Amino acid sequence: MTSPPNPSEENANAEFEDVDRSLADLEQSLEALKTRHAQIRRDRRRHRELKAELQRLAAQLEDVELRLESQLVSWRDLREPFWQAVRFLGLGVVVGWILKSCAG
């Protein structure tokens, strides 16, 4: 026949089970920590890459804006409106002098 279980053996087994459970929890926590650490490292690397890409795109955008501004505003495009303004403003001044001299 089997002997009745020894209370000290039961306590020892319970303690080992508690230790095993604690170790399993600790291993899970460590694995989660390792995963999170790897994710943070990937995210930091990606952040640096994206920051460099953003700086490159900002420089390209500035270059495109400069080219567009230089194409939109050029002396060749403003030459005709400039001379029309000079012509009509000059004519307006002359007509104004004539009207003032006639009225005065």
List keywords for this structure.
single chain; 104 residues; mainly alpha; 2 domains; rod-shaped
Question: How would you characterize the overall build of this protein?
Answer:
The chain has 104 residues and is mainly alpha-helical. The protein folds into 2 domains: 8-73; 76-104. Helix content is 91%, strand content 0%. It has helices at 7-72, 75-103. It is rod-shaped and about 140 Å long. The model has no long low-confidence stretch (mean pLDDT 87).
- Structural class call reads mainly alpha
Tell me roughly what share of residues is in helical segments: over 70%
Which strand-content bin applies to the residues? under 5%
Number of strands: 0
Number of separate domains: 2
Largest sheet: none
What is the global morphology? rod-shaped
Structure annotation, total helices: 2
Mean pLDDT over the residues: 87
Distance between the termini: 142 Å
Unreliable runs, pLDDT <50, ≥5 residues?
A: none
* CA-atom Rg in angstroms: 43 Å
Written as H for each helix and E for each strand, in order along the chain, the element string is HH
